[in-house]
Amino acid sequence: MNKTQRLIQLMMAVNERMQFTTKEMADEFGVSERTMHRDLQELSELGMPLYTEFGPHGGYRLLKKRMLPPILFSEQEAVAMFFAFQSLQYYGALPFAAESTSALNKFYHYLPTDTKVRIDALKDRVSFWTPTRTQGSPFLEQLLEASIDEIPLRLTYASKDGTTERVVQPIGIYASNGFWYFPSYCFQKEGFLLFRADRIHRLERAESSHPSKNIKHYTIGDWLLAGQEREAGPMTMKLRVKLTPAGVRTYERSNGLDANVKLNDDGSGLLVADMHRSNLSYFSKYFLSLGADALVEEPLEMVIWIREQIRAMQHAYGNDLT
Questions:
Q1: Three-class secondary structure of residue 273 per DSSP
Q2: Residue pair 35/26 in contact by the 8 Å Cβ criterion
Q3: β-sheet bridge partners, residue 192
Q4: What is the crossing angle of helices 33-45 and 22-29, to 10°?
């Protein structure tokens, strides 16, 4: 085995073992301890986070942040990776966004010139249009890691009842209509609820004494499949809004071209779509902000709320505006 092959094999062995001595690795690879020490030093210089522990039980230990061994990709596989990343470019927040960009930049740097040309062309020819929302979602990585490690989290959360504090255990995260959601087991309600990531004000790990919920076998895929049944039930609301020509233009500036908007010859339109109940508050405020350029016909809850807001404004400014 030449040195390059030995270093690759050593990198994989170190990743798997996490803790070891120079003698153990030297015996496994059939080299002297001096040679193994040089190999480990070379891995450390390449960026592998190794550190040495002294004493009778000492040796090498690998920090939690590990390096993966070199992997060979075909040109089509390389283009596919950038294609996948391109599909997420319009989201305002992504888990591990900085790490994703860093990894792709490293990957791109070592590609052949002709492959770079194809990837550059891909960026200008393909788009998955998802309008970026103004709401930030700064806790996506913590939510994702908590779902993997089955860790309860204590949240300060903006719900329809105001800002509340609760302990939840996320199943996972998923994106829909430009928002990030994290279905979770809520210990307060003793059941599974759907939460929106941008509504979290504060997040921390729950106390170590707080028990976790055994939901290892309940995946985000299970939630979404079950959601097909929920969507046909009361969690889905019919949204029907008449838009003036100015309302259509404002709506498209915020949401992009929407197949759910049927345009009339005069430029006005009718928006008809299914809306998740959790978005009721957001879209009620949004269509109220359009004023007379949006007339909500359904759902009834939204119509009632908008009427109440108009009455409150009339009371504040006076009913007699002549």
A1: strand
A2: yes
A3: 185
A4: 110
Strands (E) in 148-189, as ranges, are: 153-159, 162-170, 174-176, 179-181, 184-186
What does the pLDDT look like over 264-284, one tens digit per residue? Answer: 999 999 999 888 777 888 889
pLDDT digits (tens, 9 = 90+) for 155-192: 999 887 788 999 999 999 888 776 888 999 999 888 88
Q: What gap in Å lies between CA 199 and CA 155, rounded to an integer? A: 10
> Torsion-angle region of residue 239: left (phi > 0), alpha (psi -120 to 50) or beta?
beta
Residue 250 CB-half CA count within 13 A: 15
DSSP string, 55-119: STT-EEEE-SS--PPP----HHHHHHHHHHHHTTTT-S--TTHHHHHHHHHHHHHTS-HHHHHHH
Place of tokens 């770079």: 116
For 274, phi and psi rounded to 5 degrees? -90, 135
